[in-house]
Amino acid sequence: MGVRDWIGSWPVYRQATGDDPLGRGAAAKSAGTARLTARVSTADQVVKSVCPYCAVGCGQDVYVQDGRVTQIEGDPDSPVSRGRLCPKGSASLQLTTGSAREYGVLYRRPHGTDWERLDLDTAMRMIADRVIAARRHGWQWEHDGKRVRRTLGIASLGGATLDNEENYLIKKLFTALGAVQIENQARV
């Protein structure tokens, strides 16, 4: 590489002699950066989502390639966050691809010290049995002489990122079970 080639590859020289006097485009681009491509350029689709961490509800663009999440970025179309994410939201890709992600059900028996793996059907049956038992144990037909038909044995506290439709369905489910303590964290 001669001196002339070396000077021509210098960003300040390209800035002073080229079409980019402010050094915001081609003048600042090196051969190395010209070879780079965006992580999201190979995605098959972009799915709109909401960050799961807090009640703010920042919009996210979830990039999917071959059925796998490859990148999560802030959604610039979101009126809530306008494309910005906090550190937790920026790291939410770990929720789908992180090495600490569990893909099975872990259960620790009462007074136990070790976790055991359960299949999903067994875990769902255990949950259903416990909901039925808590409902049956806490059921009240009457209270202070008034018919109430309710249970105080179960309650629901919805997550901060549930949307209106999910909250509506949860409210319907727990009301049908007879629960009266139904709340959403986003409103608390």
UniProtKB/TrEMBL annotation:
GO terms of biological process kind: anaerobic respiration
Please list the cofactors this protein needs. Answer: [4Fe-4S] cluster
Tell me where it resides.
Cell envelope
| Annotated GO MF terms | 4 iron, 4 sulfur cluster binding; electron transfer activity; molybdenum ion binding; oxidoreductase activity
Q: Name one GO cellular component term.
A: cell envelope
Q: Which UniProt keywords apply?
A: 4Fe-4S, Iron, Iron-sulfur, Metal-binding, Oxidoreductase
> Which InterPro entries would you find in this protein's record?
Mopterin_OxRdtase_4Fe-4S_dom (IPR006963)
- Domain 4Fe-4S Mo/W bis-MGD-type residues, every copy: 44-100
Annotated TM spans: none
The similarity annotation says: Belongs to the prokaryotic molybdopterin-containing oxidoreductase family.
Tell me the protein's name: Dehydrogenase
Species name for this entry?
Answer: Actinomadura rubrisoli
